[in-house]
Amino acid sequence: MRVTAIGLIGLLLMLTGVLGPHPTRAQRPEKIPRIGVLALGAVDSPACNRTDPLWEAFQQGLRDLGYMEGQNMRIEYRCGDFQHEQLLALAAELVRLPVGVLVTAGPGALAAKQATTTIPIVFAVFAS
To answer: How far apart are CA 26 and CA 82, in angstroms?
Structure first.
């Protein structure tokens, strides 16, 4: 069920226009869309080094929709190293890149909301 929920996030990203139309049906865009991921965890934690099962499911959901990191989209990860005060600066950094959407959970959602009023924010809720 978690994988399905993560796949729905990918669908939401596509519907909000962040990822655009399916890559096999459209001309290749000149600019590769970026997804910003904002996490509270430690820099060397699974969530920040892309090995966390939830983020792997997120990436698999995007692949199921035809989006491959490094080929037709890019994911920018920023981690707060459990320092809540760092989240706002990291969210602002992602906004400046710019990213087309911010994906976060927990306290990252508040930082993302403070950093932008124009970029869509996807707030992931994980339940066991």
So the answer is: 40
Neighbouring C-beta atoms of residue 19, cutoff 10 Å:
24
Whether pTM exceeds 0.90: no
The structural domains of the chain, ordered by start, are 2-20+35-123 (3.40.50.2300)
For the chain, how big is the Rg over CA atoms in Å? Answer: 14
Characterize 50-70 residue by residue with b for buried, 16 or more Cβ atoms within 10 angstroms of its Cβ, and e for exposed: eeeebbebbbebbeebbbeee
Q: pLDDT in tens for each of the 128 residues of the chain?
A: 454 555 556 555 554 555 655 555 555 546 889 999 998 887 777 667 777 787 788 889 889 999 998 899 999 989 988 888 899 999 999 999 999 999 998 889 999 999 999 999 998 776 65
